[in-house]
Amino acid sequence: MSSIWERANRQLRDLAVYEPGKPIEETARELGVDPTEITKLASNENALGPSPKAVSAMRAAIESSQLYPDGSGVYLRDAIADRGGLRRENIILGNGSNEIIEFIGHAFLNRGDDVVASEYAFVAFKLVAQLFDARTIETPTINFQPDLDAMLRAITPQTKIIFIANPNNPTGWLIGQEKIDNFLARVPDHIVIVLDEAYFEFLGDPPDSVRYVGEGRNVIILRTFSKIHGLASLRVGYGIARPEIIEVLQKTRQPFNVNGIGQIGALAAIGDEEHLLGSKRVVDAGRVYLENQFRAMRLKFSPSAGNFVFVNVGDGAAVFKKLLGMKIIVRPLRGYNLPEWLRITVGTMEQIEKCTAALKKVL
């Protein structure tokens, strides 16, 4: 019998599978230890956990689990819109902001189209393009910073989408307001620009990207409840764009794509200023500590604007394995073609002190 792969869409054969950070439970099983002994600094999760207000709201919501969620996500979309000076029609909800990248593919990509993204950008951009049989043109970086001029030069008549993560995961670099303004002014109007801002709330002085939406540009901004809000397990993200783009994206969305408990948790989290500020304080202090430790260890790293630091340890895979044996999970970056580098999440001070002490032993 012939292989089913001969009948499947051809682009799926070579499609790489996204590799998430190694789970705590899997590591604990492999090492034969209790999961509470494992320190995970691999997936840029919130070290303080979820907002207590979100936890309380979700506990109450479980009692109504037999009901379908609000398919339109009205209350959550209204709350997001109110905070950004927008309207509900500017917001779409996703099962994580990742799902909205897939909506964008459904809406705008066909076989033979081009997508432009910087090298070392979030790998999901390339995977979604390949899923729709589009080509990704990866442009070089300068010291790991996206070369915006190179991105402009890479535009072809087939280019439909430009993806930019700001700040970028895994390198941590942030493109400031002036540079992004200058770049957008030079991109042809018909191209859709996707600004992935998963780490937006960690920024002290974030670029005002919502302004481009108000100006009627073909810009889609992606944000998430997975990072600073600490709700990664619930998979709630959102996109911001002008109403006509949101209308197009809504046509690609499955009904009830964001679960009801997730919507209620996100709604409570969005108003929990205390948790937001506390999370940002932990990250600001922890990132400075990590960077100072790396300086003292004479390790190369990139200044980060996110809740993680990108550091060169010589042999990322070997150091990852040794740290794993010491019950610490970090993120090797072989899948990004960065075999010398690790990405280390900023955890609590206790977690990062343990990690840097182990790293000193390993190196």
Secondary structure layout plus pairing:
Blueprint lengths: L23 H8 L7 E2 L11 H10 L12 H11 L6 E4 L2 H12 L5 E5 L5 H8 L3 E5 L1 E2 L2 E2 L1 H6 L5 E7 L11 H10 L5 E5 L13 H5 L4 E6 L12 E4 L2 H8 L9 H11 L2 H24 L4 E2 L5 E5 L3 H10 L2 E2 L1 E2 L8 E5 L3 H14 L1
Parallel strand pairs: 1-13, 3-4, 3-7, 7-8, 8-9
Antiparallel strand pairs: 2-10, 5-6, 9-10, 11-12, 12-15, 14-15
Shape: globular
Number of strands: 15
Mean pLDDT: 92
Helix content: 25-40%
Range of strand content: 15-25%
What's the total helix number? 13
Low-pLDDT segments: none
- In whole angstroms, the N-to-C terminal distance is 52 Å
Order of helices and strands: HEHHEHEHEEEHEHEHEEHHHEEHEEEH
Task: Briefly note the structural class of the backbone.
Answer: alpha/beta
What Rg is obtained from the alpha carbons, in whole angstroms? 21 Å
Q: Spatial order of the strands in the main sheet? A: 2-10-9-8-7-3-4
For the largest beta-sheet, the strand count, sense and barrel status come to: 7 strands, mixed
State the main characteristics.
38% helix, 13 helices, globular, alpha/beta, 7-stranded mixed sheet, 363 residues, 4-stranded antiparallel sheet
Could you walk me through the main structural features you see in this protein, from its secondary elements to its overall organization?
The chain has 363 residues and is an alpha/beta fold. Helices cover 38% and strands 16% of the residues. It has 13 helices and 15 strands. The protein has helices spanning 24-31, 52-61, 74-84, 97-108, 124-131, 148-153, 177-186, 210-214, 243-250, 260-270, 273-296, 316-325, 349-362; strands at residues 39-40, 91-94, 114-118, 135-139, 141-142, 145-146, 159-165, 192-196, 219-224, 237-240, 301-302, 308-312, 328-329, 331-332, 341-345. The chain has a 7-stranded mixed β-sheet with strand order 2-10-9-8-7-3-4, sandwiched between helices. Strands 11-12-15-14 form a 4-stranded antiparallel β-sheet. A two-stranded parallel ribbon has the order 1-13. A hairpin with an 8-residue loop joins strand 14 and strand 15 (341-345). Helix 4 runs parallel beside helix 5. The longest helix has 24 residues, at 273-296. The radius of gyration is 21 Å and the shape is globular. The termini are far apart. The model has no long low-confidence stretch (mean pLDDT 92).
